[in-house]
Amino acid sequence: MPLSKLRDQIDAVDQQIIDLLAERLRLVGEVGEVKAKHGLPIYVPEREAAMLAKRREEASSKGVPANLIEDILRRTMRESYASENDTGFKTVNPKMKRIVIIGGNGLLGQRFVEMFKLSGYEVDILGRANWDKAEEICSHAGLVIVGSPIDVTVSVIEQLSYLPEDCILADITSVKDGPLQAMLKVHKGPVVGLHPMFGPDISSFAKQVVVYCNGRGEEKYQWLIEQMKIWGAHLYNVDSTVHDESMTLIQALRHFTSFVYGSHLKEVNADLKQLLDLSSPIYRLELAMVGRLFAQDPALYADIILSQKNNLVMIKRYHQHFAEAIELLENADREQFIKRFESVTEWMGDYSSLFLDESRSLLQQAHDNRHYEDK
Prior knowledge:
Helices cover 63% and strands 10% of the residues. The protein has 15 helices and seven strands. The two termini are 27 Å apart. This is T-protein.
């Protein structure tokens, strides 16, 4: 009986929390309307940091763990950023002519179509079904974005010689140097390479990184950079060759490693359910990332991994290091293993501590989401 009464009180408090969250989301909706009217970005790092610091302090003063209130608020803010999309965004360049997105029916292309329309622009989608009208459609364009699959991006770009000279030509491919050089060659007007560092399943552009590589006529496409900032994205400028070198490690090598690990699990016919039941949070996350790869379009990942010759060079170097590490095991060389481990720790420096702290919150969330069924 005492436990039942306490649970009733907890249920009542939970209802109050739900009511307060509903009120917060309502206020966020009003904030979104004000931001849309005045052209303010939905994500302001300084405001978020200051607010979290103040809430942490207030929580601690009342005996509430600071990390708890930060976890709650960060999850709430993620929902808030997504809801602000509903109010639309300021049109940074109201004089912009029509925007054409080649591949706008693809999953990522659809997100850009949606965001441009929410920002008040007129958008046309160009794909295989209406490619015979490409020149006519592009003749009215002020911005053309190529969102075709990686393996055909350059060939699509090479066909765009008829664009108006004042039209901005951009792409959203994960490889940058090849497409950028192709755009500069085929088009005399403004050119910029874009790489959204996220998939199409995001709920909001807030805090998402969009890389941009300058091509030609930076002042002509500066409004585009500002428009994406208003969506909440973080814009990161980098040279196209540097970008591609980084993507070899960030994308190609990691995706290939996940591909090989998934293939290995299949070959040994691993019991995935048992692995999950026995796994620690960190292995569960690792397995989830491997599973995430195989839940998506294989052609996309084949194109990413095969997109650059340097990818194969890097993967072979990784294979060599893997073989050297296996040799340590074959020789049971514990001392050399520890020595090599410590050398990597030293090379990482303060980043190893940073990664440890960041991973703790991810692992705790993975643990919180775990659900056991009574047998």
